[in-house]
């Protein structure tokens, strides 16, 4: 699949999602784009928050506040569904970024007074007004389905000390998610392809296991930079954190060292950890444990993506790397069937410099392999008793649905695949955790985001030794149907912001009221929740909204309040009995 095909398909998916959820296409675009960025560790989960005042030059589409680092991320979008391969100029991109900055600046001086408190943007304006003096960095993410031809960094002059603009256009997204490129294994002949090679020493006593061979040594910074120029993100696609710009503290340190003390790089840097399927070596001298690397097949940098990309950026900026050496470890996996499993394990142990996406590392856990296998074989029952037509698709690895779709060799086969596996029936690992942990009455954990929720789900699964069988899978799908039905109900209640919090707290309260007892297999059979459950969810959602938006200490940030266990405990203590009585009255609610 090339860029143009990806762009057209992406727009079609946005339009389909917009129609399915009865929401503006730009909103569907932002949610879809942010889901890709969140799944790949670029952004945390983004809260949708559309606001626009053209006369004032203000626009924003979403946000996320990193409480620990005091970093605020704002998203602003430019979506044109008529242009599958249109372009956006640097001046227009800068103008759009300024609109997000203007929202930030105006919010700090009371913009919320001009916004209806039931609009999602009110919550964001209120948050900014409260945290403005604490924010250490403002990140503006410009999201567009157009092509940013310039590719130059956008800088904005402002009194705020640290504002950074990141442009995510359709081509950059294509590079990030098109894992079909990753199906082609990298094969490098270092002297032929990169002009020089390096030498490694074999670590003894590893070959006896017949699982892998391990080699250690050093590689020149220039070889790594040239390799990254040729293979780019494909070289680090197995890395749990892809790296494109020097943003974190570690990356700034790498950059500073390369600029001022490049000769100290080896002492300061932890080096890179790599894996390979095959390696061709030539002994440097008979009897000496030292080998010249000739060719490597399936080479992947599983830890050190930051180091590699930083070296490339410095080399591109014409910094000399002739005195830069990087420590390297290369593990050659001998057993092909264990390649993915070992990469996951090596990544988990090696990546300690930055936060790791646990959901990436656990993709090969037996739980997720079993769920994937079940999802490929269990057909969805037809409520009218007709022959089953579709399946729910469990996406064990990121981008798996896209890869499977693109493996279909013809247009008709692609169409048949999409009909059999509708995009609306895809469940990811982090969604799985959200559905289950909401029912397990942990809404304060779910409110902390996908990775925190996933970790608690995996801890719970390990502790309780959960058995993954057909009934477990069907109940999981039923929980997703319940959750998504609640999401639609909350959206139609027009509460404004905090939809994600209202949904997870409402599901948890329903679970609490019924003591976690529900016939999920009947939901699976119907593929929807009945009118009585919908009635209950509407009542509970109203109570949830009232509870979370009235914290005990006036002025408390609602988003942060929802992350505290006290929020859940007080909800149960104060509203459970009243809710039980109202629900039992069976009065209709509109």
Question: Approximately what portion of the residues adopt beta-strand conformation?
Answer: 15-25%
Figure out the total of helices.
24
Low-confidence stretches: 179-183, 240-250, 352-356
Number of strands: 17
How many angstroms separate the termini? 47 Å
Percent range of helical residues: 40-55%
Write down the overall geometry: globular
What structural category do the secondary elements indicate? Answer: alpha/beta
Radius of gyration: 26 Å
What is the count of distinct domains? 3
Mean pLDDT: 85
Largest sheet: 8 strands, mixed
Oligomer: single chain
Pfam families: AIPR, AIPR_N
Domain Abortive infection phage resistance protein N-terminal: 29-175
Organism: Croceifilum oryzae
InterPro entries: AIPR_C, AIPR_N
Description:
It is built from 24 helices and 17 strands. It is an alpha/beta fold and 590 residues long. It folds into three domains: 3-177, Trna Endonuclease, Chain: A, domain 1 (3-Layer(aba) Sandwich); 183-353, no CATH class; 366-584, no CATH class. β1 (47-53) and β2 (58-66) form a beta hairpin. The relative contact order is 0.08. The model is unreliable at 179-183, 240-250 and 352-356 (pLDDT under 50).
